[in-house]
Design brief:
The structure holds two protein chains of two kinds. Chain A has a single domain, classed as MetI-like fold. Chain A contains twelve helices and no strands. Chain A has helices at residues 5-16, 18-35, 37-40, 72-108, 110-125, 128-136, 143-152, 156-169, 173-180, 185-221, 233-240, 249-275. In chain A, helix 4 runs antiparallel to helix 10 (185-221) and helix 11 runs antiparallel to helix 12 (249-275). The radius of gyration of chain A is 22 Å and the shape is elongated. The two termini of chain A are 16 Å apart. By secondary structure, chain B is an alpha/beta fold. Chain B has nine helices and ten strands. Chain B has helices spanning 57-64, 87-94, 114-125, 130-144, 160-172, 190-207, 218-224, 242-247, 252-259; strands at residues 7-21, 28-42, 46-50, 72-77, 80-81, 97-100, 178-182, 210-215, 227-232, 235-241. In chain B, a hairpin with a 6-residue loop joins strand 1 (7-21) and strand 2. The longest helix of chain B is centred in the C-terminal third of the chain and has 18 residues, at 190-207. The chains are: A mainly alpha, B alpha/beta.
């Protein structure tokens, strides 16, 4: 057997599935296109042109123009920056909090576990979307605030996952052995147990990003998310909703991009789930 | 069997019970895992602890290692009461007290290379340089029949017997005075069991540690132990020299255990 074979096996198993591989490639292209938007986009995102209002898709404007004559293709590219970044960072925050709370809860057990898990239960009782709506009413809806709010309201499933992993891991003999040689609790948790608990977290991260993108989009759609003129997929979609009959392209293209990115994240998550679980292939 | 009379480890009146919840609204049931355990282990001695599953034998091993806190009672190790020691003071004691567990694969962190797992105890407890550590590891691995060049691999790339050799080497790196071996051969193939058992005995002669050898298998315990303690339902029912336990058992439970062995001839 070769060294480092674990990671290699994961990659091999992931690439067997064409669907997840294609999804990953599309995602990478989407992310690249968004972040290289200043190089790719043919116009400025905020460039208003009163002579070219609501033009249908053409060679000059591949996705048409909106009510202010702005190029929709350009705005969708720039909007992707916001929407994809919000999804990524929000889920990152959620995972960090979830890991800390879940691992402490699972490792120490007893009263600490009881307290933290009841807190999770309480957090889960709030309908998340309305919780977010009420928070947004009090803070400025800048993208950083949106990311923070989405992260602070999305960590509970991660905490539960990590806790469940820790509950089974702490009975394993290698963890007992670390205690026998006197390793301190923090090293046991983060150096020895966490790497063994990460697989389900990685999978849930992929689904979580998809969820965060949808939430951000919904917030922007309601006008409580990222504020125009900064484009995000959600607020471009909103700006076109009143003229769906005359200019379908303004809402259609950001909608399609939301659909594709969320679908791809979910399919990548599905692929990772199988790739990280060697039992299926044995 | 060069037994000395110096006591290395003493269990005094150890009690441990678990509370089980009965249903959602039901009350709690108290289950006694260990009842009033008194046990002396002499230096340079292998004491076999034998009992069926659920008898509390592993619980006792874990209490001695302070992985579980007893409800009452004291553990005296090298004339020092370790039952209430702080984490820092206990850490010093831990270099003298090591363990080998039942499942050789589960005992090794699957995400770490074997060499890193072996370095860990020395990194924590000594101020040796990495080169000195690796020299020490090579020496110890040599005694268990493993080449240090093979240890840059992950635990799943070894066989069960090799893994238990690695676990034994890791336990011996700190030159312990006392070893708890909790069913160390019961998950191995019978053909490998004898090899590993003999290795334990060989190394005991070199390192001269005392050992609490926990097993459910009378034949294994008989092969390795100087003395045997028979535990049943949380109580030690009989304790004595290995030969005596096998030839003149006094307790009814011990008699039953011995008569359940497939071969009836016990003379050498």
């Amino acid at each position: 057997m070769k060294r480092n074979s674990f990671l290699k096996d994961v990659f091999r198993r992931f690439f067997i599935k064409k669907v997840s591989l294609v999804s990953l490639i599309i995602l990478v292209l989407l992310i690249l296109a968004s972040f290289l938007a200043p190089l790719i986009a043919p116009y400025e995102p905020d460039l208003i042109n009163v002579d070219e209002i609501l033009l249908p898709p053409s060679l000059k404007h591949p996705f048409g123009t909106d009510a202010l004559g702005r190029d929709v293709f350009t705005r969708v590219l720039y909007g992707g920056r916001i929407s994809l970044l919000v999804g990524f960072i929000a889920e990152g925050i959620a995972i960090l909090i979830g890991i800390v709370i879940g691992s402490i809860s699972g490792y120490f057990g007893g009263r600490i576990d009881n307290f933290l898990m009841r807190f999770v239960d309480i957090m889960l009782c709030f309908p998340v979307f309305f919780l977010i709506l009420s928070i947004v009413a009090y803070v400025d809806p800048t993208i950083w605030n949106i990311m923070l709010i989405l992260g602070l309201t999305g960590w509970m499933p991660v905490a539960r996952l990590v806790r469940a992993e820790f509950l089974s891991l702490k009975e394993r003999e290698f963890v007992l052995y670390e205690k026998v040689i006197g390793v301190d609790n923090l090293s046991i948790i983060f150096k020895h147990m966490l790497p063994n608990a990460l697989n389900p977290v990685i999978v849930s991260a992929a689904f979580g990003i998809a969820g965060a993108i949808l939430l951000e989009t919904s917030l922007s759609f309601l006008g409580l998310g990222v504020q125009p003129p900064t484009p995000s997929w959600g607020n471009i979609l909103t700006s076109g909703k009143d003229m769906l009959g005359v200019a379908w392209w303004v809402s259609f293209f950001p909608g399609i991009f939301i659909l594709i990115s969320v679908l791809c994240y979910n399919l990548v998550g599905e692929g990772l789930k199988d790739a990280l679980n060697p039992k299926i292939y044995e | 069997m060069q037994k000395s009379n110096q006591i290395i480890l003493q269990c005094i009146n150890i009690n441990k019970s678990y509370e089980l919840k009965k249903g959602f609204f039901g009350g709690k049931i108290k289950i006694d895992a260990l009842k009033n355990i008194n046990l002396n282990i002499y230096s340079n001695e292998i004491l076999g602890l034998v009992g069926e599953s659920g008898s509390g034998k592993s619980t006792l091993g874990k209490i001695i290692l302070r992985l579980i806190e007893p409800d009452s009672g004291r553990i005296i190790f090298n004339n020092q009461d370790i039952t209430k020691l702080s984490y820092r003071d206990m850490k010093k004691v831990r270099t003298k007290m090591q363990a080998v567990f039942q499942d050789p694969l589960s005992s090794l962190n699957p995400r770490m290379r074997v060499i890193d797992l072996l370095r860990e105890p020395l990194k924590i407890h000594t101020k040796m340089t990495l080169r000195e550590i690796d020299n020490e590891i090579a020496l110890t691995l040599n005694q268990v029949g493993i080449n240090i060049d093979d240890t840059y691999k992950y635990p799943h790339e070894f066989s069960g017997g090799q893994r238990q050799r690695i676990n034994l080497a890791r336990a011996l790196l700190l030159k312990p005075e006392f070893l708890v071996a909790d069913e160390p051969v019961s998950s191995l193939d019978v053909s490998i069991q004898a090899q590993i058992l003999n290795l334990f005995m060989e190394l005991q002669k070199i390192y001269r540690f005392s050992m609490l050898f926990i097993s459910h298998d009378l034949r294994v315990v008989r092969h390795i132990s100087d003395r045997i303690a028979v535990i049943s339902k949380g109580e030690i029912v009989e304790l004595g020299e290995t030969q005596k336990i096998f030839h003149q058992p006094e307790n009814e439970y011990t008699k039953k255990l011995i008569s359940s062995l497939p071969e009836k001839h016990f003379s050498h």
